[in-house]
Amino acid sequence: MNRKKYCIATVIFIVASTMSLFTISIRKHSYNASHSFDMNSIHMDIENRNIQLSMQVTKSIMCIFFNTECDLCAKEILYIKDNLDIFSRKYNLVLISFEDRHKLINYKNEIISKDKTSSLIFISDSNFELIEKYNVSVFPTILVFSKNGIEESRCTGINIDFLKQLKSNM
Predict the structure, then answer these.
(1) Helix, strand, or coil here: 12?
(2) CATH fold of 37-168
(3) Domain-by-domain residue ranges, the chain?
(4) Tens digit of pLDDT for each residue in 13-33?
(5) What's the longest Cα–Cα distance across the chain?
(6) Which residue ranges does UniProt annotate as crossing the membrane (predicted)?
(7) Which pTM does this prediction carry?
């Protein structure tokens, strides 16, 4: 009987510990969610174009932190690409990766048709400045900023439903 009580107490302790860690991580996440997007801190995209000239101030900003070898990232990017006309009406679409610009140029050329002009802005963050600034620890991560640069929403990990919701809100 004592062994049964010990097992039950251990399970309760583990569940309580997990719940407290989860609560702490949610508080930490909501504390960190007050970031703003500063277009002036990023100057050039992977093709050495000034991103201030590429971005439209009347649109919100969607930043997709990704990795070219991440299958989950590819699914989200392909969903955005398949609905590019819809997303690009409301958002400046900024794709950010820690990989070097040459790898990102090749990736961009693979996913974007040669006959299409793309509204996707690719940024190489090889120094991890943006990844650290926005506390990105999972790929893919999507951050949505208002026209004023205030973070409105965040989605970590793959979540096509999140993209569908953003799409339906247009």
Answers:
(1) helix
(2) Glutaredoxin (3.40.30)
(3) 1-32, 37-168
(4) 676 666 554 444 443 344 344
(5) 74
(6) 7-26
(7) 0.75
